[in-house]
Specification:
- This protein is elongated.
- The chain is about 70% helix and about 0% strand.
- It is mainly alpha-helical.
- The chain has four helices and no strands.
Length: about 130
């Protein structure tokens, strides 16, 4: 069984980002629990990053996942502000259903790079200095 690294920097950054995203969604929902419907669509990529951060402890993969989480937070923040503040529209919340899917062309390469960096030297090659 793999060791879970729940205190890794990428895990903590991603968890805080996920919590902030859920809080933002709940602040605009009536009732607040209605926001939970949008969480898998709007914040699903952060869950994947959270799982990768918990299982890939090496520093290069952690840095890559932090970059991905911060980039996703900026993307989510932009869309959230656009939908609810800049161009408020009663039908605007439907954009939250697509926000995660639109991020995949950026997030998938980030996940692949973090996997490659996290699994490098685990195939029997001599371990280098601690990353």
């Amino acid at each position: 069984m793999k060791h879970i690294h729940a205190r890794s920097p990428a895990f903590l950054v991603t968890a805080v980002t996920l919590g902030a995203g859920i809080a933002a969604l709940m602040s605009k929902s009536e009732p607040a629990s209605a926001a939970l419907y949008f969480v898998p669509f709007a914040l699903g990529p952060l869950v994947v990053s959270l799982l990768l951060a918990a299982t890939l402890p090496r520093r290069p993969s952690q840095v890559t996942l932090i970059i991905g989480s911060v980039a996703y937070a900026a993307w989510f923040g932009f869309v959230f502000l656009d939908v609810f503040h800049w161009r408020a529209d009663p039908q605007g919340a439907i954009a939250l259903v697509f926000i995660g899917a639109y991020s995949l062309p950026v997030m998938i390469p980030i996940w692949i790079v973090s996997l490659v960096l996290g699994l490098r030297n685990k195939t029997g090659a001599e371990p280098g200095p601690r990353d």
